[in-house]
Amino acid sequence: FLFPSPHGPYNLPPGPPALPIVTNFLLLRRSPLHLESVLRTFFAKYGPIITLHIGPSPTVFIADRSIAHKALVQNGAVFADRPLFLSIDKIADSASLHNITSAPYGSTWRLLRRNLAAEILHPSRVRAYSQARRWVLGNLVRRLLCRGWEECVVVEHFQSAMFSLLVLMCFGDKLNEKEIMEIQQVQQEMLVNLQRFVLLNFWPKLMKILLRSRWKAYLHLKAKQQKVLMPFIKAREKAKHERAKEEEHVVSYVDTLLDLQLTHENRKLKDEEMVNLCSEFLNAGTDTTATTLQWIMANLVKYPEIQHKLYEEIKGVMKESQQHGSKVEEEVKEEDLEKLPYLKAVVLEGLRRHPPGHFVLPHAVKEDTMLENYFIPKNGTVNILAAEMGWDPEVWEDPMAFKPERFVGGGGEAEAMAFDITGSKEIKMMPFGVGRRMCPAAGLAMLHLEYFVANLVWRFEWKAVEGVEVDLSEKMEFTIVMNNPLKPHIRPRF
Ligand code: HEM
């Protein structure tokens, strides 16, 4: 009554009463997994859409499939922006361009995203990298064979495999192990510190003074990253004319960035902008895919009957393609994947039960808007609990169980193949997000997962160490990972 709402008669979604600064500090100090459990208690009390006062503008959290669909799909353009704090580069160099993930919804984002989608992620371009996938698989199999029957932490091998695959797609040339390691180290250092650095963005001017040494550390790491990545970009630029003479050459992400013209500013990308975009490409697809691969293999170890059923399916297809009397085919080829609906069901179930991010990246609204009769002010942040959507008991019976059969269901084998992961009609799960900001590489990620799961099961039998239960508890790193990493026995099948 004394302080009329600035939003007129409309209310923000409900939530706990808060003193903004105090709540900010209390919540930001918690781990995201803890935040998730706090949020669940708020959802139980206030309903599936709530407001918390984190940061300078209200933050809305959504845990309901149909509300998420209304926001991200039906009202996609309004909810497609990103909050400013997501772009760490804002504090360091305001002239520096965003990457795709953090760019505001607008022409630069459209240009960068279209470049990635059309020039690298288009199925014809993805096919051109099948040699690279075969090479990386060969290296991974060799490393696992070296371990013999000894138990080993497989996720480290998965991470190296996914990283080297993306390095190849990014820089085009096969780099040697030392070079890949050098890039991986600097990228890892950036990731490990990301959460510390993002805090700098909440109140940049204040934080530059309060967290001076952290800000310096950020600038130091940025310079180091530039020093490591730039020589590979320059090498690609130098060899551009030579490549143009070759009849068939595979286009790398760097090649497309070198050609890109920022139409509004009528200029090419600057060095630090290229480094930013390469860094995003390498990071976005490594841990997400490696951690999902680990979760899937962990479930195949825990439930040997699922692994056996999958192996039998692969064996059937491999027998068909094997020439009479010839020796066993070592590789499940990419063309074979579409004949393997149970494989697809296993991968989808892995993504549903263990999405690598429990939240999609934060969205922001471009203008004042209404959602479910609640007011969401311009620039308000909107977070979607993606994992909750895939665990909704209204859609998924016994949602916390790992049951690939649910994707085969009454619709038969075609059901898994036809499952719509984009959620455009209805959201049933959303490991890649939905709507305009949906992961542009969902197709590539599915291909990587299917190809590596199929080949790892075809080449090896995966078993738990006797007396050791596979522990499916989670912890938060850059993605949600296994609290106790998978350490199986792996026995070559031939
Ligand atoms: C299992 C693997 C992956 C999963 C589960 C995944 C998931 C996601 C999710 C949840 C988002 C945010 C969607 C939103 O904000 O609404 C996203 C965005 C993005 N992902 Fe992925 N991703 C995967 C692999 C990849 C790969 C391999 C790449 C690139 C090579 C990639 C590139 C991106 C980019 C550039 C964005 C930002 C899109 C934008 O803001 O417009 N992702 N991804």
In short:
By secondary structure, the protein is an alpha+beta fold. It is built from 19 helices and twelve strands. The chain is globular.
Summarize the structure in words.
By secondary structure, the protein is of the alpha+beta class. 51% of the residues lie in helices and 8% in strands. The strands form five sheets. It has a four-stranded mixed β-sheet. Strands 3-4 form a two-stranded antiparallel ribbon. Strand 1 and strand 2 form a beta hairpin. Helix 7 runs antiparallel to helix 8 and helix 14 crosses helix 16. The radius of gyration is 23 Å and the shape is globular. The protein starts with 19 loop residues before the first helix and ends with a strand. The mean pLDDT is 89. The protein binds protoporphyrin IX containing FE. Protoporphyrin IX containing FE binds next to helix 14 and helix 19.
Show the helix and strand layout:
Blueprint: H1 20-29, H2 32-46, E1 49-52, E2 59-62, H3 65-74, H4 89-92, H5 107-119, H6 123-127, H7 130-146, H8 154-171, H9 177-198, H10 204-210, H11 212-238, H12 240-245, H13 253-259, E3 261-262, E4 267-268, H14 271-302, H15 304-321, H16 341-353, E5 363-364, E6 369-371, E7 374-376, E8 381-384, H17 386-390, H18 413-418, H19 442-459, E9 460-463, E10 474-476, E11 480-482, E12 489-492
Parallel strand pairs: 2-8
Antiparallel strand pairs: 1-2, 3-4, 5-8, 6-7, 9-12, 10-11
Helix pairs in contact: 7-8, 8-14, 9-11, 11-14, 14-15, 14-16, 14-19
Bound molecules: protoporphyrin IX containing FE.
